[in-house]
């Protein structure tokens, strides 16, 4: 430290008037040395090195809180605070004791006995040593005030240390001191520290706990002997998962939870299906034998990806369990579960998650390694995505996935660090101590119920076999698997404990195993409390949506009178609400559109589609990174008061319940938000659920959801979903990342009428397409290439009569009145390029070229297009597909086979568009415009004399 700075400190800062400032700065330094100015950092570091007794390795704030608690809780404490009866040395010792207590609360988990295999040595934690705080053996039998510790007012130092070690460094390691809410911290401290807060289990409860462990182990042994060598992703080593889930279900039900949505990957899934969900063993055995095919699914999926739903009896009545289907992308199911939970909450008018509970089961490596975990945590308290708190259970095998070393799978000591971003408490627990596991589960459930926030149980266990049953883990983890092979199962350990306690005898222990095995032999349902399917007012009947056709006739029209009435209601603003001038212009234009005095634009048509659906008792949910206003200032569904910043959402005034229309400017996530909306849509067929990308290109960030859920969910799992994706698309010289929504990728995924891909070219088409999506019985994902510059194109408009008549046209014939017999060339296209072609054809005054728009690229409208080409334009010799995208992208290669079925033998099919390119678009406007000019010219061809 420089002498000048030291002199400055001594003369200006280090005096009593600045004590609070210095203390706050020192607290900041203790929390993060790099957060303070370098000279201050050097000064504090020098102080510590010069006088070790002055080291304060924990912040002083909690110590002050403890002193204040002393003052509030006892006369002795008030005397201490008043400076009575305590000399300077005693005061220093008392402060040291409080620092020690706080150190255990902050860092005691690092010395906790949470690993049944004892694979890693405990790190050095100096501040857990009394000597670090200046306490010696001579102080051990001295009584001290216990401060904020939930204990008698005064205990000897020895008793205090015994208590904090038992609470914070036993079989449970608790991390909660990162929480800034004092009430939450004090609640956790009380539940952990009060001896009576940890109820003792009676004999019956202990035997029941052993029964759940017996079931967890029993199904694995049974499957291993019956289906030798087949993959099942065994739960062995983590059998305590079953008592955890059983307690979550039963305690949740007792506290009013009526629906529980569960997401998990492979490990233990079959165990959960049998022992928690109540799946029939006969059904599982049929899957192992390859004889079972799920209803409404074609290709099916492997058994450890399958979901399930059932009803379980609890002290609070029947509880509906829904296990989400999940592909091998592990944590990708997280936002899907949250979205499903949110839809169920809305159905029950449950704003805080009292009756709906999401539970997520993670693997250790996946939780630490996959970004969607962070994104889902970020959703947890966000408006529009809140689900009342999620209970997270980590089945921590301490090995990651296949042959990895934990040191290679993360950069943090724990795999759960990500949960701290939302200040979720984390309870690490030894998976071989069933009673500690049960206590932590109750604690987590009660925390979630009290604070409606996320909570994490880190079940530290092991994996008795390899990644799957055919793996040989000893080849890469010899030391770990020596310990595992030598270690009895948790069921054996607990049975021995209960026998030593006299709770059961050996015959009873063996009898429990035999009874469970006999039940499986008899193919009986073994999950406690499993009920027949329960019907209630909140059950969704999906049967009307199966076996529907995409082209079933449906009336999507809305009368002009209704349109005008709806618009009049939308124009009403709260008293004193002042609009931004530009927004006021938009609203005035919409008033004129409703009156027929102005051509209708896209924003008006979209708003009318939603308003009419809301009036017809459908709900609408729209989320995206700028969905309220619209990325291109076209929607303006949320109005902002220019005077005070308050908001008004006119569409909320249409339905009886304002909750029937939701528009959310989401966090900057594609993967988690799209996953959430997919989950929501799979649980609610009556809501028009829409995810809007800021630019269509950004759907890249959610490709796993698109591939594994949206495109294939029905074929694999029989899951219907009416989710709509709005993907702004169009080549306008904005570069590679703001041009293409990658139509080719969606079309490549199309088969078996699994999704719809549409490119509407007029506001009326957009209107009818939106309404068709909800009014048909067909519930398939809708992928829409929405416009950008086209939103305000002078030619891309509609009139009111287009909404009160007609329907969504999958193919639009030439609208310019061209005589079919004159046509020598038919140009087929989709989207914005149509208007470029139209303007150039008008400029050239051509009547020999017909422009035909294909508005739905899948399911491809072969019948409609064939009728045009083979009848109306049968004299045309040339048919051209024109697109803006490079030849290897866009629709050309994906629809070529459809086009060949639609042309006559005499018609030659050719391509007009950009050359193949590795990049979606060029980055230079001049090059873009030249490419666009050339492809339009190629499409129209030469003028025939």
From TrEMBL:
EC number: 1.2.4.2
Pfam families: 2-oxogl_dehyd_N, E1_dh, OxoGdeHyase_C, Transket_pyr
Top enzyme category: oxidoreductase
Signal sequence residues: none
GO molecular function: oxoglutarate dehydrogenase (succinyl-transferring) activity
Keyword check for Oxidoreductase: yes
Domain Transketolase-like pyrimidine-binding per the UniProt entry, residue ranges: 600-793
The family this protein is said to belong to: Belongs to the alpha-ketoglutarate dehydrogenase family.
Summary of the function given for this chain in its UniProt record: E1 component of the 2-oxoglutarate dehydrogenase (OGDH) complex which catalyzes the decarboxylation of 2-oxoglutarate, the first step in the conversion of 2-oxoglutarate to succinyl-CoA and CO(2).
Protein name: oxoglutarate dehydrogenase (succinyl-transferring)
